[in-house]
Amino acid sequence: MLMCVGNDDDVRAVVLGQDGALAAMGKGTTLVDHTTASAQVAREIHATAATRGVGFLDAPVSGGQAGAENGKLTIMVGGEEAVFDGAAPVLGHYSRAVTLMGGPGSGQLTKMFNQICIAGLVQALAEGIAFAEKAGLDVERALDVISKGAAQSWQMENRGRTMLADKFDFGFAVDWMRKDLGLCLAEARTRGATLPVTALVDQLYARVQAEGGGRFDSSSLIRNLRKR
């Protein structure tokens, strides 16, 4: 069984209880959760599933809406190797990379790593474009030039021109990005890790939310810079 819901509470609601997924699954079956959630809930569901003889994989994805539509998601997986080996051929039908990262919760921790990196990249790209606009550059031409060098990134290739055009009615919503960054910051606190840039970007997303942009694509960070 494959599932993808919103957050930890949604995962528990769908999986646990008398009417939950585990209640309907037989011994030897596998539950794959594509939700971006906490490592804690992944380990919790894994433990409960094991008591029923059901395999469980936490398998959050990266690649956005386009990756899902084109079957080119990147899937980072936590769980037992034997369970992963059985599920990987199915996951391969809608992904370009499926990788077992370690035991239960490892998929979620890897997705946190992913979101931490993306947050900093989006803010840097927003600042770069805003600077180029103020400097009077032909920004589209400048994006074309620097995307061929060390500044190149997925965000630049896929969001640079839409940021320039102030178009954000698509993609990965700010509301979901803040949910993900909240998971990152909470996990960092439990492990004694410091995420100063991530914490700052989270607050910059909060500004976008406060001005009604919760459903805008995460690249809408540039709006914080254009109004100043």
Structure, explained:
The protein is mainly alpha-helical and 228 residues long. The chain has two domains: 103 residues, NAD(P)-binding Rossmann-like Domain (Rossmann fold), CATH 3.40.50; 118 residues, N-(1-d-carboxylethyl)-l-norvaline Dehydrogenase, domain 2 (Orthogonal Bundle). The protein has a three-stranded parallel β-sheet with strand order 1-2-3. Helix 6 packs across helix 9 and helix 9 packs antiparallel against helix 10. The radius of gyration is 19 Å and the shape is elongated. The protein starts with a strand and ends with a helix. 36% of the residues are buried. The mean pLDDT is 96.
Please specify the SSE layout and strand pairing.
Layout: E1 2-3, H1 8-15, H2 21-24, E2 30-33, H3 39-51, E3 55-58, E4 61-62, H4 64-69, E5 73-78, H5 81-91, E6 95-102, H6 106-134, H7 139-146, H8 154-164, H9 174-191, H10 196-210, H11 223-226
Parallel strand pairs: 1-2, 2-3, 5-6
Antiparallel strand pairs: 4-5
Helix pairs in contact: 6-8, 6-9, 6-10, 9-10
- CATH fold type of the largest domain: N-(1-d-carboxylethyl)-l-norvaline Dehydrogenase, domain 2
CATH architecture descriptor name of the largest domain: Orthogonal Bundle
Q: Distance N terminus to C terminus? A: 48 Å
> Which sheet architecture does the biggest sheet show?
3 strands, parallel
Q: Oligomeric state of the chains? A: single chain
Order of helices and strands: EHHEHEEHEHEHHHHHH
Q: Superfamily at the CATH H level of the largest domain?
A: N-(1-d-carboxylethyl)-l-norvaline Dehydrogenase, domain 2
- What gyration radius follows from the Cα positions, in whole Å? 19 Å
Overall pLDDT = 96
Residue share in β-strands:
5-15%
CATH class of the largest domain: Mainly Alpha
Provide the spatial order of strands within the biggest beta sheet: 1-2-3
Give me the secondary-structure category. mainly alpha
Helix content: 55-70%
